[in-house]
Specification:
The protein is 35% helix and 21% strand. It is built from 5 helices and 4 strands; from the N terminus they run H-H-H-H-H-E-E-E-E. Strand 3 and strand 4 form a beta hairpin.
Length: 118
């Protein structure tokens, strides 16, 4: 029995979190949304929004990659920020952009996902 548990544990260690119907590779490749692929994925992201809640920081990074920016919040909470439309650093930047904010609890669990135009 112990052997089976060890095999299961070792088999799941290297696995990345994936969400069916969401192309994580496409999202991650479009850093800062400069290639405008992320804006085309808005509906997909809205569809999986509630599946992201409850994931830890490593699992979020598996699905969405490293955040484009981070903000620290009170009581050890933090935000991961991803551009949905081109960031100011991009050649295709307009006067404002939409960002996705994922708020994590103090223990690193995604609690809230919001979209903001700035």
């Amino acid at each position: 029995m112990l052997f089976l548990l060890m095999v299961f544990f070792l088999g799941t260690c290297g696995r990345k979190k994936q969400i069916e119907g969401f192309d994580s590779d496409k999202w991650i490749a479009d850093k800062m949304a400069c290639q405008e692929q992320r804006s085309e994925m808005r509906k997909d992201l809205l569809r999986i929004k509630y599946k992201l809640r409850g994931l830890n920081t490593d699992e979020i990074e598996d699905v969405l990659g490293k955040p484009d920016a981070q903000e620290l919040y009170r009581r050890n909470q933090k935000y991961y920020i991803y551009y949905l439309e081109p960031a100011p650093e991009c050649d295709t930047y307009q006067d404002q952009t939409t960002k996705v904010y994922i708020r994590f609890t103090a223990v690193g669990i995604a609690h809230e996902i919001t979209f903001r135009e700035e």
